[in-house]
């Protein structure tokens, strides 16, 4: 099966195993950007969006991350249209916890009833009987976190979810969730210039939990200067250097950069084959990261 080949670009950074039984290449794909502007509605170029998904699999990507809120529903529908029947070894992860009312508008809903309905919709759109990884997209301040997690644990026991993941959470959330169900992944904002969740990456590495960084590209003036210098010397894009830094940060790191362009996809995936030298890493790590709210 092509996606499993160690010679394909996405496989060159090795694999990470989720839950002890789901090994995937450490360069994944995030399907949020396949939707319309504001993560709302259909893509401006549907043909290109479908081509991106098919090309990702050709490059060896065998982990695709999506959510019912992307579109809403559009991202999941595109994945099924492009790739079903799914090639052996392809893992799809989705999420529930947001509802949408317009472009750029996100509203919490992690109530047990909503999670159940959201999963039913995801399975129907993806044409699956069980989703490989199902994540709580974000804790809901109006709903007990334990109630949300107990719902995911029950759906896992019913065989509708293979593995449970979390997104946009604290260490306390992860530890509480692990008392209710095995947690195989955490997806938080993280990049070279935004390392607020460093300690959570370390916790995940210690406990064999995959870490999926969203917002993975370096931002900020000093960060960009450092990344640009190495990118110019290597003859690659700044995106490739940013992703290569993430891959070197931890063996449980599973980047899922998203794009609606085949060209950008190919560039991003090529980062799996770039190894930064000790000198380059030292130069990059000498740049002090800035909190998310102070970027500039």
CATH topology: TIM Barrel
| Count of strand segments | 11
Q: Which runs of at least 5 residues are low in confidence (pLDDT < 50)?
A: none
Q: What order do the SSEs take from the amino end to the carboxyl end, as H and E?
A: EEEHEHEEEHEHEHEHEHHHH
CATH level 1 class label: Alpha Beta
Helix fraction, binned, reads 25-40%
Q: State the CATH architecture.
A: Alpha-Beta Barrel
Please give a structural write-up.
By secondary structure, the protein is α/β, with parallel strands linked by helices. It has one domain: NADP-dependent oxidoreductase domain (TIM Barrel, Alpha-Beta Barrel), CATH 3.20.20. Helix content is 38%, strand content 18%. The chain has helices at residues 46-58, 74-83, 112-126, 145-157, 171-178, 198-207, 221-234, 238-249, 262-270, 278-285; strands at 15-18, 22-25, 29-30, 63-65, 91-96, 98-102, 105-108, 131-136, 161-167, 183-189, 210-214. It has a seven-stranded parallel beta sheet with strand order 3-4-5-8-9-10-11, covered by helices on one side. Strands 1-2 form a two-stranded antiparallel ribbon. It has a two-stranded antiparallel sheet with strand order 6-7. Helix 1 (46-58) runs parallel beside helix 9 and helix 7 packs across helix 8 (238-249).
């Amino acid at each position: 099966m092509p996606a499993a080949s160690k010679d394909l670009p996405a496989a060159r950074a090795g694999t990470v195993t989720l839950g002890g039984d789901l090994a995937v290449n450490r360069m994944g794909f995030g399907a949020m950007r396949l939707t319309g502007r504001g993560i709302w509605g259909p893509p401006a170029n549907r043909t290109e969006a479908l081509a991106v998904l098919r090309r990702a699999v050709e490059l060896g990507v065998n982990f695709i991350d999506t959510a019912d809120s992307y579109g809403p529903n559009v991202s999941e529908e595109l994945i099924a249209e492009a790739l079903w029947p799914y090639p052996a070894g392809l893992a799809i992860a989705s999420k529930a916890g947001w509802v949408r009312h317009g472009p750029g508008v996100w509203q919490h809903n992690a109530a047990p009833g909503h999670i159940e309905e959201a999963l039913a919709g995801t399975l129907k759109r993806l044409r699956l009987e069980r989703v490989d990884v199902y994540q709580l997209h974000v804790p809901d301040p109006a709903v007990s976190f334990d109630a949300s997690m107990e719902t995911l644990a029950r759906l896992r026991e019913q065989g509708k979810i293979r593995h449970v993941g979390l997104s946009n959470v604290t260490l306390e959330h992860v530890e509480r969730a692990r008392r209710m169900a095995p947690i195989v992944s955490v997806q938080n904002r993280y990049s070279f210039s935004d390392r607020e969740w460093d300690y959570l990456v370390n916790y995940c590495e210690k406990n064999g939990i995959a870490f999926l960084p969203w917002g993975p590209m370096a931002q900020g003036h000093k960060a960009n200067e450092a990344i640009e210098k190495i990118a110019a010397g290597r003859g690659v894009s700044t995106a490739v250097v940013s992703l290569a830094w993430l891959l070197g940060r931890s063996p449980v790191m599973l980047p899922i950069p998203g794009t609606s362009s085949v060209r950008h996809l190919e560039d991003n995936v090529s980062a799996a084959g770039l190894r930064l030298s000790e000198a380059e890493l030292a130069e990059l790590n000498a740049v002090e990261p800035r909190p998310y709210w102070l970027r500039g």
